[in-house]
Backbone:
């Protein structure tokens, strides 16, 4: 065996480990019928969004966390609630999302996007209300429908462009 082969094998293994370390976390998604949601999740969703008619649901398992994405319609339009199962088995709403027009986003959010290092002309905007009172605006660029290209947070009157993907 040549001396180069063990070196190449070691380099290949190192490259594979590095790629795995930087890979996006894997999310296991299970489609659910609204009636298949745990009753505690349904009760929480209906208590949080009175008048909601649940139309779709998913169970997502990611990085040791369990979420239920619950979509529905209310008298005010379509919304999605992300419910996380807590360590004690209870459930907590972690965000409430709705699509909005870019022109409906607050002026300070649009200004922050214009000044951001990464320029995005959003074709879709999700307003995501968090349980801590902050609001995340997820901006999706044309041709990139899966993940937001830019996220902007408004919290306690302060506007900031997020450098990392919001965890929920």
Residues:
């Amino acid at each position: 065996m040549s001396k180069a082969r063990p070196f190449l094998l070691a380099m290949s293994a190192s490259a594979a480990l590095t790629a795995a370390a930087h890979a996006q976390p894997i999310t296991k998604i299970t489609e659910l019928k609204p009636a298949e949601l745990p009753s505690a999740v349904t009760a929480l969703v209906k208590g949080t969004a009175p008048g909601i008619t649940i139309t779709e649901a998913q169970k997502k398992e990611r990085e040791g966390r369990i979420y239920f994405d619950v979509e529905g319609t209310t008298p005010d339009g379509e919304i999605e609630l992300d419910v996380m199962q807590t360590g004690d088995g209870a459930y907590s709403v972690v965000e409430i999302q709705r699509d909005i027009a870019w022109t409906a986003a607050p002026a300070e959010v649009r200004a922050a996007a214009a000044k951001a290092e990464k320029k995005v002309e959003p074709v879709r905007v999700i307003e995501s209300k968090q349980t801590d009172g902050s609001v995340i605006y997820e901006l999706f660029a044309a041709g990139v429908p899966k993940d937001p290209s830019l996220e902007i947070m408004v919290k306690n009157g302060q506007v900031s462009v997020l450098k990392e993907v919001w965890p929920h």
About this structure: Residues 22 and 140 are 22 Å apart (CA to CA). Residues 25-96 form one domain. The first strand starts at residue 27 and ends at 32. The first helix runs from residue 4 to 22.
